[in-house]
């Protein structure tokens, strides 16, 4: 059962005066649309976004939210960006959860809407399938997306378990930069000089035996730089060079002297690597996992496997692929050969470097049969299928080189 708030009745004087009735304003997606009573006698308030999604699901997708979500993901629209699709799918998943918890379906919402369903179907199709939503109309699920939550988790989510919190260091370092200002490439030199001072400060802390403080300073510093890169032009690479020095120092800090737990340090590092999207860590992380103990490697492998599954479930495919690439690096550098073939099958030919990494390790360890299996598992589908096919032919001809130019 649904009911709407009663509208105040207009007086007779307005009709007698010949004045036109005031046009009803176009509803916002976040405006309450109707209240639906559940079978348990409770009620749930639904917004116009909720109604519009339910209407489109029922009228065009047989009431199946999953089909609508897939259509949003695969459909192409001049108006849609990938982030728009992401926000709409987030709202759709949230709506499906809320309705399921209340024992309702898309069909029951449409039935409860009554005449409102008839008058809103055209607007529903336009708003759901064609238009990008305005920011002021974003629902809570549209604002607090998995991307936003996971990015914040990657930057600061583990800090409460550090022996010394990076929070005060991040605040101090961040106070030098204006978050609403855009820094030109010329300004990047001054930014890097400021950043370098903190790397030197961390070095002094380490030399004086304050390893936990040095670790906290550098970890906060790393997050500040990622946020700074979002509004700074580093075409000259000066900020990147500063990061390279500080990140290298961070990785070299002895964990036993900092006092940090391994199940804090490694998940925090891996999450940061997954979400760091400027290529700042690529150079220094190469070969890092080779020095891990078997137990530390198991911890990393388990965390990355969970991240891959969770990121896929949240439609964060790019980050899921980044986690899969990192998993391949850990496995390759640790020489977990029993995992190579399965990983290659999972990776496919969507990206060539990670497959070449696995193959090159097998070649160096004189495992030609495994090298063949890795290639055969990967050569299924993907944008790098032709290139990997050529490298496989090179391997079979006995002229192997991991260099893509050869």
Write a compact overview of the structure shown.
The protein has 406 residues and is mainly alpha-helical. Among the domains are: 27-142, no CATH class; 148-288, no CATH class.
Key attributes of the depicted protein:
406 residues, mainly alpha, 62% helix, globular
Q: Would you spell out the secondary-structure blueprint of this structure?
A:
Layout: E1 2-3, H1 12-16, E2 32-37, E3 43-47, H2 48-61, H3 65-74, H4 82-101, H5 106-113, H6 115-129, H7 140-143, H8 146-156, H9 167-174, H10 188-207, H11 211-229, H12 238-252, H13 255-258, H14 262-275, H15 282-285, H16 294-313, H17 317-333, H18 340-347, H19 353-364, H20 368-378, H21 385-396
Antiparallel strand pairs: 1-2, 2-3
Word description of this protein:
With 406 residues, the protein is mainly α. Among the domains are: 116 residues, no CATH class; 141 residues, no CATH class. Helix content is 62%, strand content 3%. The protein is built from 21 helices and three strands. Strands 1-2-3 form a three-stranded antiparallel sheet. β2 and β3 form a beta hairpin. It is globular and about 80 Å long. The N terminus is likely disordered.
């Amino acid at each position: 059962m649904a009911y709407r708030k009663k509208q105040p009745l207009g007086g007779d004087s307005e009709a007698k005066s010949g004045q036109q009735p005031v046009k009803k304003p176009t509803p916002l997606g976040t405006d309450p649309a109707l209240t639906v009573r559940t079978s348990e006698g409770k009620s749930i308030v639904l917004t116009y976004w909720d109604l519009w999604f339910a209407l489109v699901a029922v009228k065009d997708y047989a009431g199946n939210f999953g089909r609508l979500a897939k259509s949003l993901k695969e459909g192409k629209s001049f108006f849609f960006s990938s982030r728009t699709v992401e926000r709409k799918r987030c709202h759709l998943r949230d709506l499906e959860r809320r309705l399921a918890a209340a024992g309702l379906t898309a069909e029951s919402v449409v039935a409860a809407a009554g005449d409102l369903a008839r008058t809103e179907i055209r607007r529903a199709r336009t708003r759901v399938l064609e238009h990008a939503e305005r920011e002021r109309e974003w629902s809570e699920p549209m604002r607090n997306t998995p991307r936003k939550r996971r990015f914040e988790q990657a930057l600061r989510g583990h800090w409460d378990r550090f022996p010394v919190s990076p929070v005060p260091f991040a605040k101090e370092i961040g106070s030098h930069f204006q978050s609403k200002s855009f820094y030109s490439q010329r300004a990047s030199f001054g930014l890097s000089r400021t950043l370098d001072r903190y790397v030197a400060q961390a070095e002094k802390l380490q030399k004086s035996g304050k390893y936990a403080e040095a670790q906290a300073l550098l970890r906060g510093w790393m997050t500040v730089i990622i946020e700074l890169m979002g509004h700074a032009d580093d075409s000259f690479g000066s900020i990147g060079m500063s990061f390279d020095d500080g990140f290298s120092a961070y990785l070299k800090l002895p964990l036993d002297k900092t006092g940090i737990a391994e199940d804090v340090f490694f998940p925090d590092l891996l999450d940061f690597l997954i979400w760091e999207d400027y290529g700042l860590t690529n150079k220094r992380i190469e070969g890092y996992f080779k020095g891990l103990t078997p137990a530390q490697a198991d911890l990393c492998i388990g965390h990355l496997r969970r991240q891959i599954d969770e990121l896929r479930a949240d439609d964060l495919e790019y980050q899921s692929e980044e986690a899969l690439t990192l998993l391949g690096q850990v496995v390759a550098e640790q020489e977990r050969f029993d995992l190579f073939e399965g990983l290659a099958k999972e990776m496919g030919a969507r990206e060539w470097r990670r497959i070449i990494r696995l193959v090159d390790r097998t070649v160096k360890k004189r495992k030609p049969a495994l090298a063949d299996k890795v290639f055969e598992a990967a050569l299924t589908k993907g944008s790098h299928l032709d290139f990997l096919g050529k490298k496989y032919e090179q391997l079979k001809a006995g002229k192997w080189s991991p260099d893509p130019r050869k």
